[in-house]
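User: My instructor asked us to take a sequence, write out its structure as tokens, and then describe one feature of it. I'm not sure where to start. Here is the sequence I was given:
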Amino acid sequence: MNPTLPVGADYVRILPEIVLSIFGMAIMVLDPLVDEKKSQQLLGGLGLIGTLAGLVSTWIMAQSPGFAFWNMVQVDGFSVFFHVLVIAIALVLILTSYEYMAVQQLRAGEYYGLILFGLVGMCLMSSAVELVLIFISLEISSISTYILAGFRRRSATSSESSLKYFLLGSFATAFFLYGVAMMFGATGSTNIDAISAALNSGKVPLLAYVAMALMFVGLGFKVAAAPFHIWTPDVYEGAPAPVVGFMSTAPKAAAFAVLLRIIFEANAPGRFWLIWLSAVLSMTLGNVAALVQDNVKRLLAYSSIAHAGYILVAFAAKPELGAPAVMFYTAAYAAMNVGAFAVVSHLANENERYVTLENYAGLGRSSPILAGTLTIFLISLIGIPITGGFFAKFYVFSAALQSNLVWLTIIGVINSAIGAYYYLKIIVVMYMREAREEVPVLPIPLALRAALALTLAATVYLGVVPGRMLTFVQQSAQQLLQAEHTSAREQVGNAAVPRATQ
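Assistant: Let's start with the prediction itself. The structure tokens for your sequence are:
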């Protein structure tokens, strides 16, 4: 720990992780002691309280900005933003899962515990400024999502998705770890501030370029960016629908937070063409493949790949323009995509039998509330005004244009037009097609109503009055880009003295 800080200050700066871990362990301990019929309500409620406690502890953490644990963790507006984002996503996931777990007849205990343990890794990823700690956080997050992806144990496709996600994820993690090792060899450090200082002090060694490419492979897998996207459609199709909403947003947000630190704060070499190519491939492959999908979950999986491409467009822009655009887009996408999957999970029914486009025919008449809510999420995914998706795309393409990335912007706009087709196709099916078979639509429970209300409110709020959020992300991005490297290096040197003498 940093000896210049008051006792306990370091622990305050990882307070959300501590709180989430305690609630996760409490759920796992209580699970075998609680009757299976009561576990859904009790353990789910405990998980919900855990996320609320995580948000409160994040606010407490925000009052104590600075470095902790020998400058491996940094608390600033940037890390607070991603803490709030991923915990809020988990809160909506838990509200959505109450009904889903009951309908699918799944035992609840470890499910909610795994969500909280995954959050620990994601939160730590956003505040870690040391590559080895980032790797450990990435593994904590990944292990939880590997298991959650296969939680429908009686479904062969769910087991297949979990195994495929685990195997390919392990390869991606190995690439990231090799990249960390090579970056240490190139710069002599795994601290992001020290790496930045080394890379800016003279000629960049070839090994640093290789290290950056390998780390990008590992993180590109996590954000489902092409050409590392091949796992996404199969895993999303087999995983439980609420978990897919979680996987497509929270781990991605944490991985984008890591990318922002590595690419912008560490000023990673050779990043422009790597990101440019991945952005174009992600947008194009994601949108074109989505055009021919009949399964709604697979369609949204390819949509997720396309949106990763839009976000990568901002990574290719100037840091002062791209960083806030990435943060805003991540928040807007989280609201609309989690909301869309909340609707999908409700309509899927037992064993997720109703997940094709044909099953959505006539939904506008059989359930106007669900159809209307899903329509708003879809038009936000398109990027139509008065929704968060519109301003998200506007800020990304504006950042690209101001950075003279004209061709990348043109490709992005064309892809947005292509994407509008398959989103509108769902709306047309809901309102203009007669149902060929009767699809049972269950009453909307209170918890799901709350989840839909929260995501809908966030989607509309970011589209109508985005100013406050934009101001916050700009300030947070400025803290990221104006990191006090000299001060941090001095702290590293000061902290190394007592550690060496212990």
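For the description part of your assignment, you could build on this observation: Confidence is low (pLDDT under 50) at residues 484-502. Try explaining in your own words what that tells you about the chain.
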